[in-house]
Amino acid sequence: MVRIIGIDPGLRFTGWGVIDAQGNRLSYVASGVLASDSKMAVPERLCVLSNGLEGLINQYSPDEAAVEETYVNQNGTATLKLGYARGVALLVPAKSGLLVIEYGAKTVKRAVVGTGAATKDQVTMMIKRLLPTATIPRADAADALAIAICHAHHRTSQNFVAAGKVMA
């Protein structure tokens, strides 16, 4: 069995979801959202995110982490701020010794729904089907669970080397 934390990074809301995977069997552990106050300075908001992720890793003891890749949009400032949050989402689990894998949004949607063009509602519906006991307070938490599920599927469907570790 492997415990996976999925992270959907954002400066305002960072979704997180923890699942256990044993082969093709998935079990819901926990999910939620880390929120920062937009009135705070960016460095303070990044500290909130970092401290929150450290606390989650200490509480749930995941074995691996999966993080959604950043998409670039037309608002450069928003993309840059998302990049800050994503940097924290990659760094904190890596510093904790976890294997960290990144997945693009289309790959996540394809793994969970079957199509890379799935809507957020379709992703949430499939999360509820795959993890019937899941509590989903916001779409960010559903996205994080989807990222964790994507990683569970990819790690069992193929052998690959990532971050110096062989996964089977």
UniProtKB/TrEMBL annotation:
UniProt entry tagged with the keyword Hydrolase: yes
Binding site for Mg(2+) 2: E68
Co-factor remark: Binds 2 Mg(2+) ion per subunit.
Entry annotation: catalytic residues: D8, E68, D140
UniProt main location, coarse: cytoplasm
Catalytic activity: Endonucleolytic cleavage at a junction such as a reciprocal single-stranded crossover between two homologous DNA duplexes (Holliday junction)
A Pfam family assignment: RuvC
EC number assigned by the record: 3.1.21.10
Keywords: Cytoplasm, DNA damage, DNA recombination, DNA repair, DNA-binding, Endonuclease, Hydrolase, Magnesium, Metal-binding, Nuclease
Matches recorded under SUPFAM superfamilies: Ribonuclease H-like
Record localization: Cytoplasm
Oligomer status and interactors: Homodimer which binds Holliday junction (HJ) DNA. The HJ becomes 2-fold symmetrical on binding to RuvC with unstacked arms; it has a different conformation from HJ DNA in complex with RuvA. In the full resolvosome a probable DNA-RuvA(4)-RuvB(12)-RuvC(2) complex forms which resolves the HJ.
Cited HAMAP family: RuvC
Known role: The RuvA-RuvB-RuvC complex processes Holliday junction (HJ) DNA during genetic recombination and DNA repair. Endonuclease that resolves HJ intermediates. Cleaves cruciform DNA by making single-stranded nicks across the HJ at symmetrical positions within the homologous arms, yielding a 5'-phosphate and a 3'-hydroxyl group; requires a central core of homology in the junction. The consensus cleavage sequence is 5'-(A/T)TT(C/G)-3'. Cleavage occurs on the 3'-side of the TT dinucleotide at the point of strand exchange.
Matches recorded under PANTHER family: CROSSOVER JUNCTION ENDODEOXYRIBONUCLEASE RUVC (PTHR30194:SF3)
Protein's name according to its UniProt entry: Crossover junction endodeoxyribonuclease RuvC
Annotated source species: Commensalibacter oyaizuii
Species lineage: Bacteria, Pseudomonadati, Pseudomonadota, Alphaproteobacteria, Acetobacterales
Gene name of the record: ruvC
